[in-house]
Structure to design on (183 residues):
């Protein structure tokens, strides 16, 4: 097995039911991500926490200095874990994420977080384009209902479509239990 790294994408308070952009089943997703985080800490796997902030007020969410940008309490980074603050959907764009992965000798990634159809998608695709084998834990990622041209697509279907696309052409998609070997 190659040197593994864990990327936790945008599991911030903004996505909780009390936030401005609540996501489908976020509590269960965060619980699963927490299990993966605890496991990575036990195994000394490098951990990268990604936090989204819109720095120029272009959106009413993820405003720097607000409670919404804070990490969810159970997913707070430890002192020795890397935090990447991003201002774009893709965690690699305009950040030193690639340099941090290189500095930790990471050759393969496990990715969890939110939103599956946006920031998780962009990170997975960019990582694969850079040559990283990627595993996505489908039950440690989530999204929300999407509307397009008068049609509402339920979050569960958005999630299924994203995971099917990842599995089809970008990497391994599995459950938290399978990944942790508890199934």
């Amino acid at each position: 097995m190659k040197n593994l790294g864990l990327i936790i994408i945008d599991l911030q308070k903004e996505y909780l039911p009390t936030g401005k952009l609540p996501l489908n089943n976020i509590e269960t997703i965060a619980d699963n991500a927490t299990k993966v985080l605890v496991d990575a800490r036990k195994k000394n796997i490098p951990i990268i926490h990604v936090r989204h902030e819109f720095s120029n007020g272009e959106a009413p969410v993820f405003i720097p200095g607000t409670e919404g940008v804070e990490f969810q309490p159970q997913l707070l980074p430890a002192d020795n874990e890397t935090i990447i603050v991003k201002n774009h959907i893709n965690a690699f764009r305009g950040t030193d994420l690639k340099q941090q992965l290189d500095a930790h000798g990471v050759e393969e990634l496990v990715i969890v977080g939110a939103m599956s159809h946006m920031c998780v998608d962009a990170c997975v695709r960019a990582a694969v384009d850079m040559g990283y084998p990627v595993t996505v834990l489908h039950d440690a990622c989530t999204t929300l209902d999407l509307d397009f041209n008068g049609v509402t697509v339920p979050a569960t279907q958005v999630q299924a479509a994203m995971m099917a696309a990842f599995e089809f052409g970008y990497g391994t998609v599995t459950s938290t239990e399978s990944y942790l070997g508890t199934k």
Remarks:
- The longest helix spans residues 26-42.
